[in-house]
Write a structure and sequence with these properties.
Helices cover 28% and strands 16% of the residues. The protein is α/β, with parallel strands linked by helices and 538 residues long. An 8-stranded parallel sheet has the order 11-10-9-5-2-1-13-12, with helices on one face. A 5-stranded antiparallel sheet has the order 14-15-16-20-18. It has a 3-stranded antiparallel sheet with strand order 6-8-7, with no helix packed on it. The structure holds 1-O-alpha-D-glucopyranosyl-D-fructose (TEU) and calcium ion.
Length: 538
C-alpha cells in the first residue's frame, strides 16, 4: 500500500489575521497569503493549515463561525479562497481548513432561530437545560471565564457554552446537526481543500449533566461516523485538537485503519510548565526530565499503531524560543536546537508562522492586547485581588497574543505586514527578526528549517524509525536515537545556556553529521543550545 502523503509531510500553520495584509486595513487576508506562497514553497512545506477564515463576528478571532460556507469579508471572498487553493496547488501545497464543530457563533442563523422558542425547529441544534434565571443548571465553567451557561428568557432555558458566551455549543446528539455538518464538509472537499484541522474535537460529545466536557462516551462513535461520511476520500489529512488525549486514546483517534482521523494534537508536553491542578497562568518552571519522558511515551506508544503530530507552537501558545529556549543571547542557537529536537521525532511536524524566523514573545501594556481569553483572565484576576505585576507576568509568559503579533516580513514600518495600522501591534524586534533578513542569510533559522524539511523527504528513517530516549535523567540534554533497519540516527540537543559534558558525540564520531547549529568544536561537550543529528550504519 502507498504510504499516506502526510507521513513525511511538514505542515505550516497560518493565522490569517496576522500573516499578511494586502489592502491596508490592518488585518491579514487571503490575497496576502497568496502573495506569500512563493516564500512558503521555498521553505519546502507540503500543506498549510489555515486558522478559520469563515464568516464570523470575530469574538474569538474566527473560532466563532456564523456561516461555515462563506469567507469573512475581512479576509476576502470565496473567489479568493478558490484562487488560494489553486495557486497553492500549483506549488504542490495543500490547504487544510480549520473546522470548528464543537460550537458556532451565537450569530449563526441556526442559533438565531434556536433561541426564539423551545419549539423552533432549530432549538435542538444546541444544548439547553431548564432552570430559573439566576440558578445555573450546574457549576461548569466556560473556557474563557464565567459560567458555562447563559440564560435566554424567550425559552426560559440556559444554553451551554464551553468557550465564550458568543460560542454556543452544538448538540451532536441531534442527527440533523451531524448531517448538516457532513454536508458542509463535503462542500469544502469538493472545492478542493486537502484536509481539516478539527478544533477541540474531543469536546463535541459533551454530557453536561454528568459534568463530562471532553472525551465523552460518544466521541469515538461520532468520529467514526464522520470519518466514514466525509474523511475517507481524496487522500484527505485530518488532525484533531484534543487537550484530553492520552497515548491510549490517540491509538483510537489515529488508528492506521483510517476509521477516525489521521492524527491528533496532544498537549501533555504543553501542560507541564504550570502548577499542578491549576491554570496555565499559574506559572511553574518546566520539569525538563518529565518533558523528555512525555515525548518518549508518545513516540513509543504510537509506534506502528498510531501517528503523532509534532509541535511546540500554535496560535494559542507562547513562542517556543521564549518558552523552551532563550530569546536573548542564544535566540538563533536555541531556535535551531528546538527545531532539531522536534523534527528528529516520528510524526508530522507543524511549523507555526514566524517559528521559522525565531519570532519571540512580546511584552506590551495591557491596552495593547486583543485576545478574549487573556483580557477576561486579566479582569478576573485583578478583581480577585492578584497583584497587577503577577498578572502581567502570566500574560507575558502564556498569553495567546504572543503568537498573534503580525508576521515579521521586513525591517520597514510595521514589519511589512500592513501599510495601515495593524489590528495588534508588531513586536518591536522586527528590525532584527524578519523574513527578508532570514532569506538573505545562509545560516538563518529559516534555512535551517528548510534543511530539516528536506531531510525528512530524503531519509525514510525520520518517518519510519523507532525511538529510544538516551540519558533520560540528564537535566540539560535531550538525546535520542531513531533506528530503521541497519541505520541509526542520533539527535542531540542541549537545552541549557551552559557548555555541558557529553560523551555521545565521541561515540558517534564515525557517523555523518546531517545538520548542526554550530561548526566543529569539542567532541566531549555540547555548547549552549548546541544541537546536531548524526547518522551511521550499524
Ligand atoms: O482552543 C482550545 C482551547 O481549549 C483553548 O481555549 C486553549 O485551552 C487555550 O487557548 C490555551 O490557553 C481552540 C482554538 O485553538 C482556540 O483558538 C479557540 O479559541 C478555542 O478552541 C475555541 O474555539
Ligand atoms: Ca486586509
Amino acid at each position: 500500500m502507498k504510504q499516506a502523503w502526510w507521513k513525511n509531510a511538514v505542515i505550516y500553520q497560518i493565522y490569517p489575521r496576522s500573516f499578511c495584509d494586502s489592502n491596508g486595513d490592518g488585518i491579514g487576508d487571503l490575497q496576502g497569503i497568496i502573495s506569500k506562497l512563493d516564500y512558503l514553497q521555498e521553505l519546502g512545506i507540503d500543506a498549510i493549515w489555515l486558522s478559520p477564515i469563515y464568516r464570523s463576528p470575530q469574538d474569538d478571532n474566527g473560532y466563532d463561525i456564523s456561516d461555515y460556507q462563506d469567507i469573512d469579508p475581512i479576509f476576502g471572498t470565496l473567489a479568493d479562497m478558490d484562487e488560494l487553493i489553486a495557486e497553492a496547488k500549483k506549488r504542490n501545497i495543500r490547504i487544510i481548513m480549520d473546522l470548528v464543530l464543537n460550537h458556532s457563533s451565537d450569530e449563526h442563523p441556526w442559533f438565531l432561530e434556536a433561541k426564539k422558542s423551545r419549539d423552533n425547529p432549530y432549538h435542538d441544534y444546541y444544548v439547553w437545560r431548564d432552570g430559573t434565571e439566576g440558578t445555573y443548571p450546574n457549576d461548569l465553567k466556560a473556557g474563557f471565564g464565567g459560567p458555562a451557561w447563559e440564560w435566554v428568557p424567550e425559552c426560559g432555558q440556559y444554553y451551554f457554552h464551553q468557550f465564550s458566551v458568543k460560542q454556543p455549543d452544538l448538540n451532536w446528539e441531534n442527527p440533523k446537526v451531524r448531517e448538516e455538518i457532513y454536508k458542509m464538509i463535503q462542500w469544502w472537499v469538493d472545492r478542493g481543500v486537502g484536509g481539516f484541522r478539527l478544533d477541540v474535537i474531543d469536546q463535541i460529545a459533551k454530557e453536561p449533566d454528568r459534568r463530562i466536557t471532553a472525551d465523552g462516551p460518544m466521541l469515538h462513535p461520532y468520529l467514526k461516523e464522520m470519518s466514514k461520511a466525509v474523511f475517507q476520500q481524496k487522500e484527505l489529512v485530518t488532525v484533531g485538537e484534543a487537550w484530553s488525549a492520552t497515548p491510549q486514546s490517540a491509538l483510537l483517534f489515529s488508528n492506521p485503519d483510517g476509521s477516525e482521523l489521521s492524527m491528533v494534537f496532544q498537549f501533555e508536553h504543553i501542560l507541564l510548565d504550570q502548577q499542578p491542578g491549576k491554570e496555565k497562568w499559574d506559572l511553574a518552571p518546566l520539569p525538563f526530565v518529565t518533558f523528555k519522558k512525555v515525548f518518549e511515551k508518545w513516540e513509543t506508544t504510537l509506534y506502528q499503531k498510531g501517528w503523532n503530530s509534532l509541535f511546540f507552537e500554535n496560535h494559542d501558545l507562547p513562542r517556543s524560543v521564549s518558552r523552551f529556549g532563550n530569546d536573548g543571547e542564544y535566540r538563533v542557537e536555541s531556535a535551531k536546537m528546538l527545531a532539531v529536537c522536534l523534527h528528529g521525532m516520528q510524526g508530522t511536524p507543524y511549523i507555526y508562522q514566524g517559528q521559522e524566523l525565531g519570532m519571540t514573545n512580546v511584552r506590551m501594556p495591557i491596552e495593547d492586547y486583543r485576545d478574549i481569553e487573556l483580557l477576561n483572565m486579566y479582569r478576573e484576576r485583578i478583581a480577585a485581588g492578584y497583584p497587577e505585576k503577577e498578572v502581567m507576568e502570566s500574560v507575558y509568559a502564556k498569553g495567546r497574543d504572543n503568537a498573534r503579533t503580525p508576521m515579521q516580513w521586513n525591517a520597514e514600518e510595521n514589519a511589512g505586514f500592513t501599510s495601515g495600522t495593524p489590528w495588534i501591534k508588531v513586536n518591536p524586534n522586527y528590525r532584527e527578526i524578519n523574513a527578508e533578513a532570514a532569506l538573505a542569510e545562509e545560516d538563518s533559522i529559516f534555512h535551517f528549517y528548510q534543511k530539516l524539511i528536506r531531510l525528512r523527504k530524503e531519509l525514510p528513517i525520520l518517518t519510519e524509525g523507532s525511538f529510544t530516549l538516551l540519558l533520560p535523567e540528564d537535566p540539560d540534554l535531550f538525546a535520542y536515537t531513531r533506528t530503521f533497519g541497519t541505520e541509526e540516527l542520533l539527535v542531540l540537543c542541549n537545552f541549557s545556556d551552559r557548555e555541558v559534558p557529553c560523551s555521545l558525540k565521541k561515540d558517534w564520531e564515525a557517523g555523518e553529521v546531517l545538520i548542526a547549529n554550530y561548526d566543529g568544536g569539542a567532541s566531549d561537550s555540547l555548547r549552549p543550545y548546541e544541537a546536531c543529528m548524526i547518522r551511521r550504519t550499524k
